[in-house]
Amino acid sequence: MQIGQKMLHLASVDSTNNYAANLLKQGDLEHGTVILADEQYAGRGQRGAEWLVKPGENLTFSFFLSDVNLSVNRQFVLTQLVSLGMVDFLRKFGIEASIKWPNDIYVGDSKICGMLIENQLSGSSIKSSIIGIGLNVNQEAFSGFSATSLKLVTGKQHIIQELIFSLIFTLNEMFKENLNRTARIDERYHENLYRRDEMSDYEDASGKFQGVIKGVSPEGRLIVLRDHKEYLYELKEIRFV
Ligand code: BTN
């Protein structure tokens, strides 16, 4: 499941995930294609949010996996793999990142990377997947929420063109051996899980509460211990306060 044999580098696009989806619709998207954009004017985040970053300062790209062949109830493995790929990539810069469930990459309490995974299903299996990644690279100021970038963490300016090749290499290392080693992937995902085993503040439909993340279920639901009972949450059901 290697990627990067083909790369499209666009100056400006609405969203690299949309661009990939359109190519797929036209029957013109090969497995492993990477679509990199200097600027996205309608970048999309999770939960229907926007992904707005400064043009030319960050890594925004998508890649296409055509041969996923995972049953839908194992789709979280893909999230885990790509998240761990990002953690491994950041470690090459000496950065100890963690994974904020389900797939935000954090340094300390600030977000450095987000991803948008859009699967194409066939019956009860995932046929293919468009995986979009936004990594904050040289941007120094962020408004609205707590975010950071490679430059803020390492103190150095980075060359985006170089990063993409090195990141593709890291992701390929991850994809090479791992899709079937789900126990090891799951173990590593948990080792790197943000706020695991720490008492912290959360909010769900019943209001704010204190709880402890114990892990993530095989289907990808967050397990939170609250008042000696475990609760399972889907993505939109809980907010980290
Ligand atoms: C999130 O954290 O909310 C997900 C952010 C995903 C952003 C990336 S940037 C490249 C790709 N194209 C998009 O429109 N979104 C993803």
Structural overview:
There is one protein chain. With 241 residues, the protein is of the alpha+beta class. Helix content is 25%, strand content 34%. The chain has helices at 16-25, 76-91, 150-154, 160-178, 182-191, and strands spanning 7-13, 34-40, 59-65, 70-71, 98-100, 104-107, 110-122, 125-135, 199-204, 207-216, 222-226, 229-233, 239-240. Strands 1, 2, 3, 4, 5, 6, 7 and 8 form an eight-stranded mixed beta sheet that branches. The longest helix is centred in the last third of the chain and has 19 residues, at 160-178. Residues 15-17, 40, 43-46, 49, 51, 60-62, 104, 114-116, 132-134 line the site of biotin (BTN). Biotin is lined by residues 15-17, 40, 43-46, 49, 51, 60-62, 104, 114-116, 132-134.
Topology:
Blueprint: E1 7-13, H1 16-25, E2 34-40, E3 59-65, E4 70-71, H2 76-91, E5 98-100, E6 104-107, E7 110-122, E8 125-135, H3 150-154, H4 160-178, H5 182-191, E9 199-204, E10 207-216, E11 222-226, E12 229-233, E13 239-240
Parallel strand pairs: 1-2
Antiparallel strand pairs: 2-3, 3-8, 4-8, 5-6, 6-7, 7-8, 9-10, 9-13, 10-11, 11-12
Helix pairs in contact: 2-4, 2-5
The structure holds biotin.
Residues 15-17, 40, 43-46, 49, 51, 60-62, 104, 114-116, 132-134 line the site of biotin (BTN).
